[in-house]
Specification:
151 residues; alpha+beta; 7 strands
Length: 151
């Protein structure tokens, strides 16, 4: 009986591995807005849906780190659906208080940019399989605006 269950697990695992799943890429991280209190960053997530029908998105969770410290994080509940057999672009806004930006000034002071590590987890509801999380991460650097850009 135990051998039969093991064989069934192997067959099921092989079938699941071959199932098409949505894929995502983080294509952009920019500073969208700057005011006296916060800097608003926007990241663009492109998600390819291989199915002919739309797939509901359960949530998007994100974390932005710089210099090994978390500077922004959050969750966007129920942001809509992925279009069937198409690419859906999702904008993920992040607000970073200046107090946190000031705390990472050692990195910023050298070259007036922020080295970042952006992690996004997109959870979708796949029929039959249930919730499926697509992890996406990207590392890079983003130039900060100068005072003349703000005022």
């Amino acid at each position: 009986m135990a051998q039969l269950l093991e064989k069934a697990k192997e067959v099921f695992a092989d079938k699941i591995a071959g199932v098409k799943k949505p894929e995502a890429d983080l294509t952009d991280l920019t500073i969208k807005n700057v005011n006296r209190d916060t800097a608003t960053f926007h990241s663009m997530l492109e998600v390819r849906n291989p199915y002919s029908h739309s797939i509901p998105i359960c949530e998007i969770s994100f974390t932005l780190k710089s210099a090994g410290r978390e500077i922004a994080s959050g969750t966007i509940p129920d942001p809509g659906s992925l279009k069937g057999d198409d690419i859906t672009k999702l904008e993920v806004p992040l607000k970073v208080p200046y107090s946190i930006l000031i705390s990472i000034m050692k990195d910023v002071g050298r070259d007036w940019d922020i080295d970042y590590d952006m992690c996004i987890k997109l959870t979708v509801d796949l029929p039959i399989f249930g919730n499926f999380t697509i992890p996406v991460s990207q590392q890079g650097e983003i130039k900060l605006p100068t005072l003349s850009d703000i005022f």
